[in-house]
């Protein structure tokens, strides 16, 4: 049974979401002290975290950043605010998905199922090391290493890189990437992919590899062996 940590201070909404998730056989946990979220997260060891942005003491962005610094566990952000920057900020901090309130529970369930299937089915496959541009991509440990150091990727970032490397030197359309990552593109903003790719490329820049992920305007992205120029 998958364990889901629901960081939501609205008691009515918490119990409503929990009841729906229990119907799908998920084990749901809440927070008892919103000043000690990371301690409770560590004790629970959830398989997925859902975080509301508006929380007492510290907001959801703070806890997303803090959890991501400790773990690569999948994170979904909930927001009742109508600010496009909320989604951008969530993705930049390492969230895997973003849901605007009010939402249909069918959408929440679909996103949870897609993330869990993608992350944990993927982790049961036989893992291999991938050599690319003088670096080693470790699909099991979510890292990329070369003589400049090692970076750690989130699940989404690793899966984007993996998909691009599987079709190296070929253009992978944005639609194909969205389908491969989130399975049902109807529930995904196109900007979500852009943020994830930009975040991946920023991390790869630390190893001098960002230039090898090329943007093909109006088409998609390409992983190259030779240096590429991008905006």
From TrEMBL:
<dbReference type="InterPro" id="IPR011006">
    <property type="entry name" value="CheY-like_superfamily"/>
</dbReference>
<dbReference type="GO" id="GO:0005829">
    <property type="term" value="C:cytosol"/>
</dbReference>
<feature type="domain" description="Response regulatory">
    <location>
        <begin position="3"/>
        <end position="116"/>
    </location>
</feature>
<dbReference type="GO" id="GO:0032993">
    <property type="term" value="C:protein-DNA complex"/>
</dbReference>
<dbReference type="GO" id="GO:0000976">
    <property type="term" value="F:transcription cis-regulatory region binding"/>
</dbReference>
<dbReference type="InterPro" id="IPR016032">
    <property type="entry name" value="Sig_transdc_resp-reg_C-effctor"/>
</dbReference>
<dbReference type="GO" id="GO:0006355">
    <property type="term" value="P:regulation of DNA-templated transcription"/>
</dbReference>
<keyword id="KW-0804">Transcription</keyword>
<keyword id="KW-0597">Phosphoprotein</keyword>
<keyword id="KW-0805">Transcription regulation</keyword>
<feature type="modified residue" description="4-aspartylphosphate">
    <location>
        <position position="52"/>
    </location>
</feature>
<feature type="DNA-binding region" description="OmpR/PhoB-type">
    <location>
        <begin position="124"/>
        <end position="225"/>
    </location>
</feature>
<feature type="domain" description="OmpR/PhoB-type">
    <location>
        <begin position="124"/>
        <end position="225"/>
    </location>
</feature>
<keyword id="KW-0902">Two-component regulatory system</keyword>
<dbReference type="Pfam" id="PF00486">
    <property type="entry name" value="Trans_reg_C"/>
</dbReference>
<protein>
    <submittedName>
        <fullName>DNA-binding response regulator</fullName>
    </submittedName>
</protein>
<dbReference type="InterPro" id="IPR001789">
    <property type="entry name" value="Sig_transdc_resp-reg_receiver"/>
</dbReference>
<keyword id="KW-0963">Cytoplasm</keyword>
<dbReference type="Pfam" id="PF00072">
    <property type="entry name" value="Response_reg"/>
</dbReference>
<dbReference type="GO" id="GO:0000156">
    <property type="term" value="F:phosphorelay response regulator activity"/>
</dbReference>
<dbReference type="InterPro" id="IPR039420">
    <property type="entry name" value="WalR-like"/>
</dbReference>
<keyword id="KW-0238">DNA-binding</keyword>
<dbReference type="InterPro" id="IPR036388">
    <property type="entry name" value="WH-like_DNA-bd_sf"/>
</dbReference>
<dbReference type="InterPro" id="IPR001867">
    <property type="entry name" value="OmpR/PhoB-type_DNA-bd"/>
</dbReference>
């Amino acid at each position: 049974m998958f364990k889901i940590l629901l960081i939501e201070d609205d008691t009515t909404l918490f119990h409503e979401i929990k009841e729906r998730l229990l119907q799908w056989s998920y084990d749901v946990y809440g927070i008892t002290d919103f000043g000690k979220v990371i301690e409770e997260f560590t004790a629970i060891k959830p398989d997925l975290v859902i975080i509301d942005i508006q929380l007492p003491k510290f907001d959801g962005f703070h806890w997303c950043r803090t959890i991501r610094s400790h773990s690569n566990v999948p994170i979904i952000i909930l927001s009742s605010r109508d600010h496009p920057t909320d989604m951008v900020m969530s993705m930049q901090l390492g969230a895997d998905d973003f849901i605007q309130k009010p939402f249909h529970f069918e959408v929440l369930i679909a996103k949870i199922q897609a993330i869990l299937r993608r992350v944990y089915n993927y982790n049961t496959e036989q893992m291999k090391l991938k050599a690319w541009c003088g670096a080693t991509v470790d699909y099991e440990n979510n890292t990329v290493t070369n003589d400049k150091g090692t970076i750690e990727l989130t699940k989404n970032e690793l899966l984007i890189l993996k998909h691009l490397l599987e079709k190296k030197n070929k253009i992978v359309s944005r639609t194909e990437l969205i389908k491969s990552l989130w399975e049902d593109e109807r529930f995904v903003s196109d900007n979500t992919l852009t943020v994830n790719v930009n975040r991946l490329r920023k991390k790869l820049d630390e190893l001098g590899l960002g230039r090898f992920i090329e943007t093909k305007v109006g088409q998609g992205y390409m992983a190259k062996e030779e240096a590429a120029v991008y905006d």
